[in-house]
Write a structure and sequence with these properties.
By secondary structure, this protein is mainly alpha-helical. It contains 21 helices and 2 strands. The protein folds into 4 domains: about 70 residues, lambda repressor-like DNA-binding domains (434 Repressor (Amino-terminal Domain)), CATH 1.10.260.40; about 110 residues, no CATH class; about 110 residues; about 80 residues, no CATH class.
Length: about 400
């Protein structure tokens, strides 16, 4: 890969293009000029709220700040084009209806590849599988289960597009997921779509609008769900976890605490010891703890986050897939850097690359922490340089 520009470098270029000085831009962003200088020089990571403030001030998307989509291997780019074409012709599947047993096995494989963050492998099967699942649902008429499979598959497609920084594709996929979920007559499928829709606003730094999506989805789901079912608990709990992220990034402590309290109460209704995956939503005590840790980071409580992270990284919650454990180590790296534990941040990043390498290569905060560490220690830390090269941050 070629060396990708950093978020700080992108902010500097956009600022100069618009004829703004650092003092003027910093004032508009609500940060100090000295902090902006450190961001542009690569001495501080550009966090999601900072990227949101910069995108608003510079009138660009957060993806433009982060430089997404990041440069990807040629095969991955070709596969993304194939997925985009399949999503575009969503009512015109070219594939034949496969045997139901084979389709069910392939759908399970897709869900597992998503959870394992094996995005390239998932991309290889998604276009064909979307066509097959859609053809099956159309042949089945109004069969709710068949349309639910299509909706869940679009959830897998959203995860890939979102993680690889393909914001336009992710937006289109959410509309297709809504199209499919409306045919299920299943409130949980509609709520899972709302979870991804709120994620679109989260990625764009529009946290207040994302919260509105979550709160509306919660109200609608509570009005129509079967409260005693596991599906109900997992779906509602996941919506509250999305609310935790959005509220904490919006620096709304009261809303953060409320969503977290309600998520914990729902997690207590599940069997202890393992989280549950339904409709590509993971929920339970373990994942709730990871979201609580992330909320401390977003609310500028790094020491509290460090304290909470210690037992989690020593013994990660049981039953969580690599996509969640990888995120735990990325958040741990971020908070360790915030308290100037440089060695600890590097070690956490190594764990993230070992557990979920494709996520670590493309996740904006993984790249930002890695970039800052490289500015500080690149030449003397060969492991850092190796991770930077894998992420396209070094030649």
């Amino acid at each position: 890969m070629e060396k990708a520009p950093t978020a700080g470098e992108n902010i500097a270029v956009l600022r100069k293009t618009r004829g703004l000085g650092q003092v003027a831009l910093a004032r508009t962003m609500g940060i100090s000029a000295s902090y902006l200088r450190k961001l542009e020089a690569g001495e501080r990571p550009v966090t999601p709220p900072v990227a949101a403030a910069a995108s608003k001030a510079l009138r660009v998307t957060t993806s433009r700040i982060y430089g997404q989509p990041f440069l990807a291997p040629a095969e991955q780019s070709d596969l993304l084009d194939e997925l985009r074409a399949a999503v575009r012709r969503y009512t015109l599947p070219r594939e034949d209806t496969p045997p139901l047993e084979q389709l069910a096995a392939d759908l399970k494989r897709a869900a597992r590849l998503r959870a394992d963050t094996r995005y390239t492998e998932l991309l290889r099967i998604l276009p064909r599988l979307l066509g097959q699942a859609t053809a099956t649902a159309m042949d089945a008429g109004g069969d709710a289960t068949a349309w639910g499979q299509v909706a869940d598959l679009y959830g897998c497609a959203y995860a890939v597009a979102h993680r690889l920084g393909q914001t336009d594709l992710a937006d289109m996929i959410v509309s297709r997921q809504e199209w499919a979920s409306q045919r299920t007559w299943n409130p949980a499928a509609n709520a899972a779509t709302a979870w991804n829709e709120a994620g679109i606003f989260q990625s764009a730094g529009q946290y207040e609008d994302g919260l509105s999506i979550v709160e509306r989805a919660i109200s609608q789901f509570e009005a129509g769900g079967a409260e005693q079912s596991q599906e109900y608990v997992v779906t509602l709990g996941s919506l509250h976890l999305r609310g935790v992220v959005l509220a904490s990034r919006h620096h709304d402590q009261a809303a953060t605490a409320d969503h977290l309290r309600r998520a914990k109460a729902l997690a207590d209704r599940l069997e202890a010891g393992s989280d549950v995956l339904i409709h590509n939503l993971t929920f339970g005590a373990g994942n709730t703890a990871l979201y609580e840790l992330a909320s401390h980071i977003e609310l500028d409580q790094p020491h509290r986050a460090v304290e909470m992270s210690r037992p989690l990284v020593e013994t990660p919650p049981a039953g969580l897939a690599p996509n969640r454990i990888g995120r735990l180590y990325i958040d741990t790296a971020r908070v360790r850097l915030a308290v100037k534990d440089v060695q600890g941040a590097e070690e956490a990043l190594k764990q993230a690359f070992a557990i979920s390498p494709q996520m670590a290569e493309f996740h904006p905060m993984s790249r930002e922490v890695l970039r800052v560490l490289c500015v500080m220690h690149q030449r003397s830390r060969p492991d850092l340089l190796a991770m930077a090269k894998r992420s396209g941050l070094a030649d």
